[in-house]
Design brief:
The protein has a two-stranded antiparallel sheet with strand order 1-2. It is built from 17 helices and two strands. The chain has one domain: Up-down Bundle (Amino acid/polyamine transporter I). With 426 residues, the chain is mainly α. The termini are far apart. Helix 6 packs antiparallel against helix 15 and helix 9 packs across helix 16. Strand 1 and strand 2 form a beta hairpin.
């Protein structure tokens, strides 16, 4: 059996009936924005700034800016597609409708869920680093304990989870604001100092910058998670584009500013050696112990994990609704109104990935998977825009946006692949 999903006066797609239960529209614009900000900030500046600085050097702010542009192009495409097809497992639905390949949409949906799981494993590793500044326990023990705790909270309910992420997100932004408060100079002076210290812009710098952009791109992963809770969003046609756009603008400004402060205070080569880089940066700037940033950093990372758990479980739920994976993952609990089996599976994948792979490998895997999905999603929107029958009353972007989104995502992936081949051959 199936049912039609409606948007305004237009039937937009056929959806199989959920095996049991349904999600409820409880998320408003502030909650959705905090969800998106929590995903991006927690996943980014608190975790990968050190590794990114190691590759970019004094071009660290530029790496974040380029990553923001690449992410922004795809974000605009996601905003349109989310209003065309406001369903969970959004990326899979976009490919199914745009390119017409059911098998490819399944692979894409699983890739999105996997990227969320790998991203969570990355974040948990980063969170363990901050927690070990405060608690002397083995890393694997902390990793497992945090995963069980957060997985249980996500299973408890969407509104409770989002209220928690909202509190954590405000704490994250507060931590960054503290660092900005202690910054020694204004942004213009910081830019001038970084430019004076930077190496000449040659092939070696470009190669390092490319790798840095791949890592920095990880810091912007989050807005695409928002489309996978669209079935729980109030007034999605208006709320979703606004939340995506505001999330990217705020995170870009914060990332570039913090990156400028960091390379002016700590040599990029030294930044990568720090277990909790922003805590060390705060100590250098303020002369005080960085325990408060360590606490905030731990909460920021945990926030990102909660958000990725929500996203990954909703993708599996959406794929089950589409009839592309076993129906058990589409079952929604009558008590919690959450997909419990889907949440459990995502937690299992996070456990395996987090205990087997390093933070840098996990971040690069997440970025590569996400860039591949972005390229395919942009391609789907191009195909949809070339059709004669266009839906009315949806958020729309020029066709040049998905074209540039496809080119930039694919280009960055290819450049990184070439670098890896050269490194392997060498």
């Amino acid at each position: 059996m199936s049912r039609q999903v409606w948007l305004g006066s237009d039937v937009i797609m056929e959806m199989p009936i959920t095996p049991k239960g349904r999600l409820l529209r409880r998320i408003n614009l502030p909650l959705l924005m905090l969800y998106g900000l929590g995903a991006t900030i927690g996943a980014g500046i608190y975790v990968v700034i050190g590794e990114t600085a190691a590759s970019a050097g004094y071009y660290l702010p530029l790496a974040f800016l380029i990553a923001a542009i690449i992410a922004g192009l795809s974000a605009a495409s996601f905003a349109e597609l989310a209003t065309r097809y406001p369903v969970s497992a959004g990326e899979a639905a976009y490919l199914r409708e745009g390119l017409g390949f059911k098998g490819l949409s399944l692979v894409t949906g699983l890739a999105v869920a996997s990227a969320g799981a790998i991203s969570s494993a990355t974040l948990l590793q980063g969170g363990v680093g901050y927690l070990q500044e405060l608690i002397e326990l083995p890393g694997p023990m902390l990793f497992v304990a945090l995963l069980v705790l957060l997985g249980g909270f996500v299973a408890w309910g969407i509104v409770k989870s989002l209220l928690l992420t909202g509190i954590f997100t405000i704490m994250e932004i507060g931590g960054l604001a503290l660092i900005i408060f202690y910054a020694p100079s204004d942004p213009v002076t910081l830019i001038a100092n970084a430019a004076a210290a930077a190496d000449a812009f040659d092939y070696t710098v470009i190669a390092g910058l490319s790798s840095a952009v791949m890592l920095a791109f990880f810091a912007f992963i989050g807005f695409e998670d928002m489309v996978n809770v669209v079935e729980e969003v109030k007034r999605p046609r208006r709320t979703m584009p606004l939340a995506i756009g505001l999330t990217l603008i705020i995170t870009t400004l914060l990332y570039v500013w913090i990156a400028l402060i960091a390379i002016n205070a700590i040599a990029p080569a030294s930044l990568v050696q720090e277990r909790a880089p922003l805590a060390s940066l705060f100590t250098v700037l303020s002369g005080q112990r960085g325990w408060i940033i360590s606490v905030i950093g731990a909460f920021a990372v945990l926030n990102g994990v909660v958000i990725q758990l929500i996203m990954g479980s909703r993708v599996l739920y959406g794929l089950a609704r589409l009839g592309q994976i076993p129906g058990i993952f589409g079952i929604v609990s009558d008590r919690t109104h959450t997909p419990l089996y889907a949440t459990a599976l995502i937690c299992a994948v996070i456990l395996i990935m987090g205990l087997l792979l390093s933070l840098r490998d996990l971040a690069q895997m997440t970025s590569a998977l996400t860039l591949t999905v972005f390229a395919l999603v942009n391609l789907s929107l191009i195909a949809l825009k070339m059709r004669r029958d266009q839906p009315a009353d949806v958020f729309k972007v020029s066709i040049i946006v998905p074209i540039l989104g496809f080119v930039s995502s694919t280009g960055l992936l290819l450049f990184e692949l070439i670098q890896r081949i050269d490194a392997f051959a060498g």
